[in-house]
Design brief:
By secondary structure, the chain is an alpha+beta fold. The strands form ten sheets. A nine-stranded mixed β-sheet has the order 5-4-3-6-7-9-8-10-14. Strands 27-29-30-34-31 form a five-stranded mixed β-sheet. Strand 4 (262-266), helix 15 (270-282) and strand 5 (286-291) form a beta-alpha-beta unit. The relative contact order is 0.05. Residues 145-150, 152-159, 208-213, 447-457, 664-676, 867-876 and 907-917 have low confidence and may be disordered.
Length: 934
């Protein structure tokens, strides 16, 4: 590469300013650039090249060199670095002052004002000679208090608020960051360009991501709202935003329209008010009326051409005065905000309101009354069901976009944007296909926009329905329920004609009775009946449904419906609250082949209905018992026809099992599911070992054509191994193969062994276990950080009461699984964190890496299952099962926490020393809770 490209490469990788000498040393060491004379690059040549490429690089007053070719990315990188420090301070210091989130935006706002003098006139500030440093920031804040009538009129308590901001700012030393920031000239950016940068800084706010009081709206959701309301965005149109938050929606609309609308809003939270005010100013929004007040208490009406709103999703307000202002008396804040939007709209106006999905179908009196009010008065124009997870990683709450207008709507457009036609998943993020939703909304239909159903029971992705239909449906606005369609309704019937809910009976003693959890239900349609032999006793007196008769069991959490039949051949059971229990109707018992019913419930058409009727957030999404009874199935009345279908299905299953058994067991005729799983698991483990052996054999074949020293590399490639290294790897792989069956025996036996606990020093013990995998971790350049709770220093250590032999398996397998599966070639800094804290009753362990999250469709249950799930081949082999077994033997619990969150590393002293950043993005995070039972 050319010298300027090498400089740019190093600066980008280091993500900081560097001196010419530092740059020269790294470029020479890595051989990124070669001079014609073969000599080393001197620092003076770096400085000369910088001067020739001033459009790419900038030198600060202290002589450090920075990239400036990616202006926006560099500015945001600097802002996020500063926010990471404040986030860590907030998380670990116990400081509860919410004004801390305003520090970084305030610094960038101040820099923008200094560079763009025209803003001084807007703010009525006369001193344009301020210097950009922390002292200048303090003086600027004081000037705002004393000189800016505009600002002071907007917020009477601004002086106290800014004093809080400055007090918090004094806790940090941002001098170096101020120096870096000073090299950029913000006057070169338009309002829309800088507004976009400033809005992203707000979206990354350190407090916002922790307390979630009001969420930062993803750009794609703001874009969708902007496209829907654009028909009403004309010059001088009034856009009203009650409960403005950080003004993410109006500022996005401003950046993406050529019309200068006028903004009107209220925000009751003082910190949010200042943040949104800065955001509006930076985006060049014309402010007609904006105050730090409660939106719900306002009396003005019929003044807005557009209303956009993202109201609080939960909460109640106890105010008779506020309730009395609105047609539907309620204390639910989200319902009051919807009515506030309606009250503010002019005739012909349009409102786009983000609401939690439950607003659309909650059967509580106030929710139903609100929907009735909107529908009867023809105010509902459209409901757009948005994908589960669209607000991740901030929250998993499932949301919809409710579009209202004062236009006498006789039909309502329902769009199921939760269908795969409208979005793609990128890790934990959802990418909406906004243009496609817009085209449907405004009837700009593309060819083949409605795909053919993939199964016999299909669904639509949009439809216009009559308001009269909603009257008949008790004003339910659940989009998916209306878009289900059957290709053969004449052959389908509601399952409620066949089954009925089981009415639980009380039972005094629930202890020692077998307990049925979702994981005990069938894993695929090959296992139709509940295996009563494998149920664990209810040793913790868990609550549930007492069941002493044959019944149909249905998991309530999608997609884990897992229909199973309990024969009640051995003893009564306690059934988890996450499982619905149904009985076959007495008059139908003789007409039903249970196996046929279970085959039918495992069909794709039932799965689609199950998903459609499920409601709630991504983490709590489930189907109610009553909604399950709405599902339609194909059920021949003639039991002989059912028997014939079952026989055909069994023949197909037997053939599939035979092929599977032959592939695993060399035509030995194995049919038991437990043996198949065991063999599948062995295949999985050996499959992880043999590729390394194959690679090493290939390396040896290259080597044998040469005569070289054992420590000499066997080829000229950069990552080639030495002969000694190859032999070591082969020996290690052979040892793994030799120990494999012994490890299987230990895994199966571990549940029967008496657990032997003892006190050990946590960090000392974990460090010893990590050292066993030192070569593997070092070769893969993986950091391992071993810590305890942040209130203790790194030099301190604490006891943990565990079975050390069993925990050795747990630590080993988490490390090895991370090495094998977590990282790809693009992951530069690879980290594992093993951390512990405790209270008087429990130990809390975190096993974390910054690799890839679990793939779609792969759950914690899949990871913990023995050898993986046969039907999807996505098992975790030995490692995941072992981790879960060890936790179970310690009477603990294990959870999988959210991927994609940013974690700040308090102490970057690692066991391997590869880390350079102070924060990582979490890939996998297992959270283990162990009771302190002596």
């Amino acid at each position: 590469m050319k010298l300027h490209e090498a400089i740019e490469h190093v600066l980008k990788q280091q993500n900081r300013g560097m001196s010419p000498r530092e740059l020269a040393n790294i470029i020479n060491e890595r051989e990124l650039y070669s001079r014609n004379d073969g000599g080393l690059i001197p620092a003076s040549q770096i400085s000369a090249r910088i001067n020739n490429y001033q459009h790419l690089f900038k030198k600060s007053d202290d002589g450090l060199i920075y990239r400036i070719n990616d202006f926006k990315k560099d500015i945001l990188s600097l802002a996020f670095e500063m926010q990471s420090r404040t986030r860590n301070f907030y998380a670990h210091s116990g400081v509860l002052n919410n004004q801390i989130e305003a520090i970084i935006p305030f610094i960038f706002f101040y820099k923008r004002i200094l560079d763009r003098k025209v803003l001084f006139e807007i703010l009525l500030i006369t001193d344009t000679n301020a210097k950009f440093d922390l002292n200048g920031l303090y003086n600027f804040a004081n000037d705002l208090n004393s000189n800016s009538k505009w600002f002071s009129n907007k917020l009477e308590s601004l002086i106290r608020l800014l004093e809080d901001i400055l007090k918090d700012a004094s806790l940090f030393n941002f001098d170096n960051e101020i120096k870096k920031l000073s090299i950029y000239d913000f006057s070169k950016l338009s309002d829309h360009e800088f507004g976009g940068i400033f809005s992203e800084i707000l979206a990354n706010s350190p407090i916002r991501n922790i307390r979630h009081s009001q969420l930062s709206i993803p750009n794609e959701l703001s874009e969708l709202i902007g496209r829907i309301i654009k028909r009403n965005v004309f010059s001088d149109a009034v856009l009203y935003n009650p409960g403005t938050g950080q003004a993410s929606i109006p500022t996005f609309v401003s950046r993406n329209t050529t019309n200068d609308f006028q903004f009107w809003g209220e925000e009751i939270n003082q910190s949010d008010f200042v943040l949104s005010l800065m955001n509006l100013i930076c985006n060049g929004v014309i402010i007609k009326e904006y105050s730090c007040n409660d939106s719900l208490s306002q009396n003005n009406s019929d003044f807005a051409d557009i209303v956009v709103s993202d109201p609080p999703y939960m909460g109640r307000i106890n105010s008779v005065e506020i309730e009395s202002k609105y047609p539907v008396r309620t204390q639910e804040i989200v319902l009051l905000f919807i009515q506030r939007a309606v009250k503010a709209l002019k005739n012909g106006g349009v409102a786009a309101i983000i609401v939690p999905e439950s607003v659309l179908f909650n059967n509580s009196k106030q929710f139903k009354e609100l929907r009735k009010y909107l529908i009867v008065n023809h105010l509902v124009e459209s409901v757009i069901s948005l994908p589960a997870g669209v607000l991740q990683p901030m929250t998993g709450i499932k949301i919809s976009l409710l579009v209202l207008s004062k236009k006498e709507n006789r039909e309502i457009l329902l769009i199921d944007a939760d269908s795969k036609e409208f979005f793609q998943k990128d890790g934990y993020k959802i990418k909406l296909n906004v243009p496609k939703i817009e085209n449907i909304y405004f009837e700009k239909f593309e060819d083949n926009i409605v795909n053919e159903p993939e199964s016999q029971y299909g669904r639509k992705i949009f439809e216009r329905i009559s308001v009269d239909l909603l009257h008949e449906s008790d004003f339910d606005l659940n989009v998916k329920g209306y878009l289900l369609e059957s290709n053969d309704d004449n052959n389908l019937q509601p399952i409620s004609e066949i089954i009925e809910p089981y009415k639980s009976v009380s039972h005094a003693d629930l202890d020692e009775i077998p307990y049925v959890n979702i994981t005990d239900l069938n894993n695929d349609f090959k296992e139709l009946f509940l295996n009563e032999n494998n149920l664990q006793k209810n040793q913790r007196n868990q609550s549930g449904i007492y069941l002493d008769r044959p019944a149909l069991l249905i998991g309530s959490i999608p997609p884990r419906m897992k229909p199973s039949y309990f024969k009640a051949e051995k003893s009564p059971v306690i059934v988890s609250q996450n499982i619905h229990v149904f009985l076959i109707k007495e008059k139908k018992v003789k007409d039903i082949n249970i196996e046929y019913l279970l085959f039918e419930l495992s069909s794709q058409r039932v799965a689609e209905q199950f998903e459609a009727y499920a409601t709630g957030s991504t983490s709590l999404r489930r189907i109610s018992r009553n909604d399950f009874l709405k599902i339609k199935i194909r059920f021949p009345d003639n039991i002989k026809e059912q028997d014939s279908i079952v026989a055909t299905q069994k023949e197909a299953l037997y053939a599939a099992k035979l092929i599977e058994a032959e592939s695993f067991a060399d035509k030995m005729g194995i049919t038991r599911i437990e043996e198949k799983k065991l063999l599948g698991f062995i295949k999985h483990e050996i499959g992880n070992i043999t590729p390394g052996i194959s690679t090493d054999v290939s390396n040896l074949q290259q080597f044998f054509s040469k005569r070289i020293d054992l420590n000499e590399k066997i080829s000229g490639s950069k990552n080639a191994a030495s002969l000694l290294g190859v032999f070591s790897r082969i020996q290690s792989n052979i040892n793994d193969v030799e120990n494999l069956l012994e490890n299987i025996a230990n895994i199966i036996r571990v549940g029967d062994e008496s657990i032997s606990k003892k006190n050990v020093k946590f960090k000392k013990y974990i460090r010893k276990e990590v050292e066993k995998q030192y070569s593997l971790l070092k070769n893969n350049k993986i950091n391992v950080l071993i810590g305890i709770d942040q209130e203790y220093t790194q030099k301190q250590d604490r006891d943990i009461f565990i079975d050390t032999n069993q925990f050795s398996y747990l630590v080993r397998n988490f490390l090895i699984n991370t090495v094998k599966h977590a990282f790809d070639n693009l992951t530069e800094e690879r980290s594992i964190i093993i951390n512990m804290n405790e209270d008087k009753d429990f130990y809390y362990l975190s096993l974390i890496n910054n690799g890839k999250p679990f793939p779609d469709g792969f759950s914690l249950d899949d990871f913990l299952s023995f050898g993986g799930r046969v039907e999807n081949q996505k098992g975790s082999g030995l490692g995941g099962f072992l981790i879960g077994k060890v936790v179970e033997n310690h009477k603990g619990t294990i959870d999988l926490l959210e991927s994609g969150t940013v974690m700040f590393l308090e102490d970057t002293n690692t066991e391997s020393g590869f880390i350079s950043n102070n924060f990582i993005r979490v890939g996998i995070h297992f959270f283990i809770k162990l009771p302190k039972i002596q």
